[in-house]
Design a protein that fits this description.
The chain is an alpha/beta fold. The chain has one domain: Isochorismatase-like (Rossmann fold), CATH 3.40.50. Helix 2 runs parallel beside helix 8. The chain is globular, with a radius of gyration of 16 Å.
């Protein structure tokens, strides 16, 4: 993995919030790896940015034509409580961390993420999050089209379907990103 200047790198912790975390099984390995990555980023003066999905009361941003988000309107999924939007306590933002709210699957869609990345001259993004087949996949595709250097921390990503996670991290993501683990990434920073 190419070593880049840390001041041009950001670690993105995506959709690790109440509504997605409650669906996780075996949380401890995921949170242990994610905590390690976040601690290493902070220690190495790498931006830590949190991306959460959030909507206004009544969900005016959600189209009934959007298959994924329309389940929110029907009540099949909930984003009604503050804890549904809040970043999981295990990896809560600290003062100085950036929290970005998005309105779609990709971290870029309906958010000011790109404005913040450009303002901070970020060229390399390190992706983590829930779900591998959702926010991580969509963000990789869009970030690659925007010419960012991308790293994915495979053990800091989760999906309901372990086989989908495996195929994406082993076969699909390497076409556009370096795929590694939190342990390997943190070791590369020193």
């Amino acid at each position: 993995m190419e070593k880049l200047n840390n001041e041009h790198t950001a670690l993105l912790v995506m959709d690790v919030q109440g509504a997605t975390v409650k669906a996780l099984e075996e949380r401890e390995p995921f949170f242990a790896a994610l905590k390690k990555a976040i601690a290493a980023a902070r220690e190495n003066k790498i931006w830590v940015m949190y991306v959460v999905v959030g909507f206004r009361k009544g969900y005016p941003e959600v189209s009934p034509h959007n298959k994924m988000f329309s389940s929110i309107i029907s009540g099949a999924r909930s984003f009604d409580k503050e804890e549904d939007f809040k970043v999981a306590e295990e990896v809560a933002p600290q003062p100085g961390d950036v929290v970005i709210t998005k309105k779609r699957v990709s971290a870029f869609a309906g958010s000011d993420l790109e404005v913040v990345l450009r303002a901070q001259q970020i060229q390399h993004i390190v992706l983590t999050g829930i779900a591998t087949s959702g926010v991580v996949l969509s963000t990789i595709r869009e970030a690659a089209d925007k010419d960012y250097t991308i790293t994915v921390l495979s053990d800091c990503c989760r999906d309901r379907d372990e086989e989908v996670h495996r195929v994406l991290t082993a076969k699909v993501f390497p076409r556009q990103a370096d795929v590694t683990t939190a342990e390997e990434w943190t070791a590369s920073l020193h």
